[in-house]
Task: structure prediction
Amino acid sequence: MDSTQIRQLNEIISRWTGKPGALMPVLQEIQEKFGYIPEDAMKEVSAKLNIPLPEVYGVVTFYHFFSLKPKGKYKIQVCEGTACYVKGAKRVLEKFEEVLGIKVGDVTPDGKFSIESVRCIGACSHAPAVMINDQVYGRMNSEKVSQLIKTLK
Ligand code: FES
Result:
């Protein structure tokens, strides 16, 4: 974490210090601000809020909306909700992994793409659906995945 991030982190933590139930809101703010929960941030939260580190880590890993890794410039979210799943979401996910050479939950080495598996994104009628940043792409298939990545690269 750089000095700006450390300052932002301290600012978030100090606003919640001494308040009951501070852990979740603090982690949510960190996730929003940085796009993930850096390991150093978990240590700071643990020390300053006086919560054992395994407990902080346990919360971060339990809830899927917290991430331990930074996201890519293009945040690919493949829906694996029921409607998408039955229409081949798994194949779409595997195609993204193949084309980008990374696994779900990872980021490409250049920081450009990350892949996540998510639950329903509200586009069931366009299943299988994918969201990249704020844009939804429907009726995905292997060919569309390749084309999309080519365009974004
Ligand atoms: S299940 Fe995929 S958009 Fe609803």
